[in-house]
Amino acid sequence: DAGVIQSPRHEVTEMGQEVTLRCKPISGHNSLFWYRQTMMRGLELLIYFNNNVPIDDSGMPEDRFSAKMPNASFSTLKIQPSEPRDSAVYFCASSLSAPNTGELFFGEGSRLTVL
Amino acid sequence: GNSVTQMEGPVTLSEEAFLTINCTYTATGYPSLFWYVQYPGEGLQLLLKATKADDKGSNKGFEATYRKETTSFHLEKGSVQVSDSAVYFCALSVGGSNYKLTFGKGTLLTVNP
Questions:
Q1: CB-based contacts of B77, cutoff 8 Å, min separation 6
Q2: Which of the residues A44, A109, B57, B73 could staple to A89 if both were Cys, CB 3.0 to 4.6 A apart?
Q3: What are A's interface residues with B at a Cβ cutoff of 8 A?
């Protein structure tokens, strides 16, 4: 079975450019998460969707970040304009919300470098 | 608030050595506790979990016991292998926000042959 699929795996861009990261969750999962991983701050939850609806976006750093989930099989995380401090690995994860076991299934991540 | 504190790494061991990675937590309410593992170049995957006090989670030779009295969930393995080299994350979730995992900062384990 396919796991969580993220693209691109690596992105190098210049400051000020728009970046779009994509995620396809596991079929049948109804919860989707975007995390950011950096050496300094570890893993941070950016946003959580349940049944395609954003439930908690309190971790989104600022207005430059936005996330959408137009259907159950696709989500995007957009950064516009990008800044060097956005350089990180961005993970998408999905799960079944009920019954909640706390088990998230992570993609392989998108490594973003903003120059 | 909720938080997880892990022993800082990196940890370097020889094959067949005993492993302990300490994890303590602070939580409002009664948390479920987890260990996730991240192999090089991959995403995190659940290693084991425990949902109530005195539960022991186990998988792939790893074990951790939920100790409410010491608010701890230490990860142990009796004999590590080179293939266990990875970053290990302790995490918790609590009650009504069960979707929201709070992760520790991770501990890098390197096992040498």
A1: B18, B19, B61, B62, B63, B84
A2: A109
A3: 4, 31, 33, 42-43, 45, 48, 50, 55-56, 91, 93, 95, 97, 100-109
The confidence score (pLDDT) of residue B108 equals 95
pLDDT band for B91, please (50, 70, 90 cuts): very high
Q: Which of A40, A89, A101 to mutate to test the interface with B (most CBs of B within 10 A)?
A: A101
What pLDDT is attached to residue A41? Answer: 87
Q: Using alpha carbons, list the distances in angstroms from residue B111 to A23, A97, B35, B45, B78.
A: 33, 36, 18, 19, 13
The CA angle B59-B61-B66, to the nearest 5 degrees, is 60
Rounded to whole angstroms, the maximal C-alpha distance in chain B is 45
Q: How confident is the model at residue B20 (pLDDT cuts 50, 70, 90)?
A: very high
pLDDT of B7 reads 84
The pLDDT tens digits for A39-73 are 888 899 999 999 999 998 999 988 999 999 999 99
Residue given tokens 């470098």 in the structure block: A113
Residue A89: closest CA among A48, A49, A47, A34 = A34
CB contact under 8 A, B44 and A91: yes
Please name the amino acid found at residue A57. Answer: D
CB contact under 8 A, A102 and B34: yes
